Amino acid sequence: MKNLVLTIFSLLFLSSGLVAQEYTIGFSSKTFRDADRRNRRVNARIYYPISNNTSQSVNEQFPVIVLGHGFIMGSDAYQNFYDTLVPQGYIVVFVNTEGSIFANHIAYSEDLAFMVNAIQQENDNSSSVLYQAVADKTALIGHSMGGGAATVAASLVEVETLVTFAPAQLRFDTLTPASEVTEDAIVFSGSGDAVTPANEDHIPIYNSLGANCKYFINILGGAHCYYANSNFACDFGENSSSGNIQITREEQQEIVFGYLNSWFAYKLKNDTSAQEQFISDLSSDAIDYENGCLENNQEMIIDQNPTVVISPNPTTQKITIGTKNSNTFEKVEFYNQQGILIHTSYNKETYTSQIQSGNYILKIFTKKGITTKQLVVKN
Question: Fewest 10 Å CB contacts: which of 45, 72, 221, 298?
Answer without folding.
Answer: 298
